[in-house]
Amino acid sequence: MEEAAPDLTGADEVFHVTRALDFAAALGPLLRTHRQVVKPEVVWNVETGQALSAQRIIDATAARTRLAAAVRDFYSRYDLFLSPAAQVVPFDARLRFPTVVETAGGAGPADYLDWMRSACVLSATGLPVVALPAGFTPSGLPVGFQVAADHYRDVELLRHAKAFEDRTRCADRRPDVGAGMGQDVRRVTTAAAG
Question: CB burial class (10 A; 0-12, 13-18, 19+) of residue 96?
Answer without folding.
Answer: exposed
